[in-house]
Amino acid sequence: MCGIAGLLDNAKTLGGDALDALAARMAGTLRHRGPDDGGAWSDAAAGIGFGFRRLAIIDLTPAGHQPMIAAQSANERGRSAIVFNGEIYNAEDIRRELNGLGATPAGGWRGHSDTEVLLQACRHFGVAGAVERLIGMFAFAFWDAPAKRLTLVRDRLGIKPLYWARAGQQFLFASELKALRAHPGFSGEIDMTALAGYLRQAYVPAPRSIYRDAQKLPPGHMLTVEAGGEPVITRYWSLRDIATEGQRHAATRRIDNLAAIEDLDRLLRDAVKLRMIADVPLGAFLSGGIDSSTVVALMQAQSNRPVKTFTIGFHEEGYNEAAHAKLVAGHLGTEHTELYINPNHALDLIPRMPDLFDEPFADPSQIPTYLVSEMTRRHVTVALSGDGGDELFAGYSRYAWAGRLKRWTDGVPLPLRRLTAATLRAIPTESWDALSGLIPERRRPRQFGHKVQKLAGLLAERTADDVGRRLVGFWHDPSELLDRAYPPYGELWDDSITRDLPDFTARMQYLDTMTYLPDDILTKVDRASMAVSLEARVPMLDHRVVAHVWNLPADLKLRDGKAKWLLRQVLYRYVPASLVERPKMGFAVPINSWLRGPLRDWAESLLDEARLTREGIFNPAPIRRKWQEHLSGTRDWQYDLWVVLMFQAWHERWRTQ
Q: Is the N end or the C end of the chain the one with fewer CB atoms within 10 Å?
């Protein structure tokens, strides 16, 4: 796991020393991603420069140093090179294939790093041929010297980040935006369409970034640019094709339950085993939920020593999963470590958020994700995570009850639904919370009042897809905050997906996997773990697992209202159901009460009406109204407010003009 950066100077105005210095300067901002080693390389005649920071995981010797330069053969013009962030878990299989073809590097293999294998595979098979063989997470830049071609590649599910930009006649790329900002020609102008997207979704949706001149390379895509040419972006792996074909196949497929459980167990075991390959200490995040418990169980089943596990706890009732994680750890016999956090942890961390995330990012679980990463890094260098299980196995509670809501409201006239919504909204959140006491505790939803208000918003929507977008949205009409309306963009707003995936739940799963997963969940895990130089691995997102699960019938995922049915059956082979069967909690943070208490002064300073007016980005009126309603307890606006607060904190830190 590392940080990469570089540039292609089409005008060839920079000499070798200047190219080296600029590439090193850009990569220097990524030291947290790679504290163990760094380097820069350039070819002034070609105008190419690479910078790198290394977190040594596989082959800790200098043989793994990057940028890695290929030995030049007699018929080559110039030397090809690579900078690579990630892990290729089947690197040894590819090495054996290359050896069998007589395609070893000139002078032989210098070490056993996966980077060297990837470099040689790109040279022998071509980039597309190399990528189709890869099992892993990756973002890399390959300079093909004979073709004078730069290729950027991002992994299939978007586990690793990759940005690109222009600065005059120079083409730039990097793992994080801060490296692009280090280039003297980079413009920091805000992309207002991207800002509107952020207000809707609490993250900046791909392919845009918060900056007008920088973009994210989408998952499953590669970008090629030749000296003096324009970038060309192509898709090399399509989840849409896999999901469409898989659902068509699954609709007529009958699978024996026991065979399905065995197949998934075997495939997940292999995915986990591959991700246990490391030359450094390794552990896992454990929340005690289905996903992380499954990963840890499969790790422990294939380990001859106790797996090191780590969890975060909260003192606030209704948010704490640490006790459940401890029971699972005890049953599996792991070496378990836990940390209970309080508002002071958040207060200390919040000022650092803009540096960690580079652009506005408002998932409050960024706080515990960073803290559990920080704690974990004191013990290990690699940690496995259960991320991806919710999207694959229909784990989010909204999948089940959105489907029920659709069935209940089909045929109910829109005016009647909107009248019901207005009635629900008229009752304050705190009153609904008080009424929740009438519900048996075992069945009582957390944040009942907030959920009722959310239900009201769903009832007022026109179509099922509008309901789906509202479920994952925040400021549904950003124009009330901004100077004008900015059009929504991205796959979430592509209505043609309904044709390929007519089932509502499958469509939500697909859209979450293409949007929320890479742009929120995986971004959060990458930035939080890399901030402390910890490598996070996600076996659920092995692309073979993803393709397999999309070929399964829907009732193996969501059965009788119970999410993750098949994944649960695999877990029950290792952990008693009684230890993991409970209402889904998620990695939630008590932001609502913190904003009314220990974070109130910090929030008030960022939401001050005079300040908002002076900065001229947001209309203060709707923000101040929601802030006052939240403080009074009339409504719970924690998430909408957090979206604004995280932008304000980012803007204060980076202060674009």
A: C
